[in-house]
UniProtKB/TrEMBL annotation:
Belongs to the methyltransferase superfamily. HEN1 family. It comes from Amycolatopsis silviterrae. The lineage of its organism: Bacteria, Bacillati, Actinomycetota, Actinomycetes, Pseudonocardiales. Residues 1-240 form the Hen1 N-terminal domain. Its EC number is 2.1.1.386. InterPro entries: 3'-RNA_MeTfrase_Hen1_bac (IPR024026), Hen1 (IPR026610), Hen1_N (IPR024740), Hen1_N_sf (IPR038546), Methyltransf_12 (IPR013217), SAM-dependent_MTases_sf (IPR029063). Its cofactor is Mg(2+). It is an enzyme of class 2 (transferase). Coiled coil: none annotated. It holds the Pfam family Methyltransf_12. This is Small RNA 2'-O-methyltransferase.
């Protein structure tokens, strides 16, 4: 069982950093069904290829009562499991590239969040050419699926159900790996292990923001959950909740926004915003994080998926927003270990609250513009003086960019609850004043495409205490 990941991003050898596997040596990993090996057939600045080879032990499969899928004794030993991509390869991806799947890379955080040119090859992929295209093309991949004959010496026998699969496109590496991790078992239409409720969480986590909008999400869900009706229904319900979060596409408030997305952008602005924030938090090495003004919990969901974050403090002034967040995060179904990581409570950022203190980082994602200007100084004292985290991340709309939204009338703010929207100069002036007042260093960053005339759609300020930002 074999797959390769190739990039021509310069320098291409940075692929080793993203995968957390050194190009200069072969690494092997013991798995329950065999042994996985990672090596680099080529690693230059112009082109780099990482290969994952999984050697399946057919005896281990039988002893574990996995893989064969039938009661025919010989069929347990003579089958396609050692050769065809399946849930075995999916598990190997997760075990070998665990950190890469999360999109974390301390040495290259910006690269980890950026689309790069990728060429992925799976020489023996089940499912057939039509299904492969149905599943991967909506995700932005160019798909080449060459059918493999049953026997090249007997062409009259026709094609097998396997294809030589090649995927090309400019996609974030973590997203590409998650696509493979989720869809390989779907194409095989089988799992080599028992499928229980925990698989729903894996599905939602790996599906990220794309599965809920996928035209074949029902097919994907049903096959991934081994056609178990109860699990499929529960998963589709949760996906519907993910899909009904349209208000977050431009804001994290509950009220409906005026604008739903950036023009001509394939990735929603809300997703770009959260991705940038997560990259900043990873670069800071933050283990305790506050989401101040968490709204419906979109960022909290990303923080929960980040295993390096040990404690999450999520607050909002709106009780209704917190109720929606609790429902979407499925608090009642969290394990005790997961629930212990999250503190979700009501709090106003214009009043001192000692429960907000002692954090590595705090995030105010699209929050400050909802505060009346005379109350901003109270928010500043609450966050920067009393809570005083090691770092603060603030995002807010860039008013200059509003002219790029065709559906937004001139002079209109993006959201009916916004009290103001700053230009880039106004945001920098506010950030510099706050940093100077509370002994922080600050720098501003763009979120989304940085338009040469009007700047980015969203602007971000990173405040760091006791050092340079």
């Amino acid at each position: 069982m074999f797959l390769t990941v190739t990039t021509t991003h310069h320098p291409a050898s940075d692929l080793g950093f993203l995968l957390h596997k050194h190009p200069g040596r072969v690494q092997s990993f013991d798995l329950s069904a065999g042994q996985a090996h990672v090596f680099y057939p080529e690693a230059t600045d112009d082109r780099c290829t990482a290969a994952l080879l999984l050697e399946v032990d057919p005896v281990a499969l039988v002893r574990g009562k996995t893989g064969a899928g039938d009661g025919f004794t010989l069929g347990q030993y003579v089958n396609d499991r050692p050769y065809a991509a399946s849930s075995l390869l999916s598990v190997a991806l997760k075990e070998v590239f665990r950190t890469a799947l999360t999109g974390r890379c301390k040495s290259h955080p910006e690269l980890a969040t950026s689309p790069i040119p990728l060429d992925i090859r799976v020489p023996a992929c089940p499912g057939g050419a039509d299904l492969v295209r149905r599943l991967f093309e909506p995700l932005g991949w160019a798909v080449e699926a060459t059918p493999l004959p049953l026997d090249p010496h007997f062409p009259q026998w026709g094609d097998s159900r396997y294809v030589d699969l090649r995927l090309t496109g400019e996609i974030r590496l973590a997203d590409a790996l998650n696509h493979l991790y989720l869809l390989l078992p779907v194409l095989d239409n089988a799992k080599h292990y028992w499928v229980g409720e925990a698989e729903i969480d894996k599905l939602i986590r790996a599906g990220g923001d794309w599965l809920a909008a996928h035209p074949d999400k029902e097919l994907i869900t049903r096959r991934y959950l081994a056609h178990r009706r109860g699990l499929t229904a529960a998963a589709l319900t949760r996906l519907a909740e993910v899909d009904d979060s349209a208000p977050e596409e431009i804001d994290n408030a509950l009220a409906a926004p005026v604008v739903l997305d950036e023009p001509d952008r394939p990735v929603p602005l809300a997703q770009q915003r959260r991705g940038t924030i997560m990259a900043v938090l990873r670069s800071l090495g933050a283990h305790t994080v506050g989401d101040f003004g968490c709204g419906e919990g979109a960022l909290v969901r990303d923080l929960l998926a980040e295993r390096s974050v040990e404690r999450i403090v999520a607050t909002d002034v709106s009780v209704h927003a917190l109720q929606v967040a609790a429902r979407k995060l499925r608090l009642e179904r969290m394990s005790e270990k997961e629930r212990a990581r999250l503190e979700l409570f009501q709090s106003s950022l214009t009043y001192r609250d000692d429960r907000l203190a002692g954090l590595d980082a705090a995030v105010l994602m699209e929050v400050v513009e909802h505060v009346d200007p005379p109350r901003l100084e109270a928010l500043e004292r609450t966050v920067f003086q009393f809570a005083a985290p090691r770092a603060v991340v603030v995002t807010t709309p860039n008013r200059e960019y509003n002219v790029r939204f065709e559906s937004l009338p001139e002079g209109k703010l993006r959201h009916r609850d916004h009290r103001f929207e700053w230009t880039r100069a106004e945001f920098r002036a506010w950030a510099d004043r706050v940093a100077s007042s509370y002994s922080y260093a600050v720098r501003t960053l763009p979120v989304g495409a940085d338009d040469p005339e009007v700047g980015p759609a969203t602007q971000l300020a990173l405040f760091t205490k006791g050092g340079e930002a």
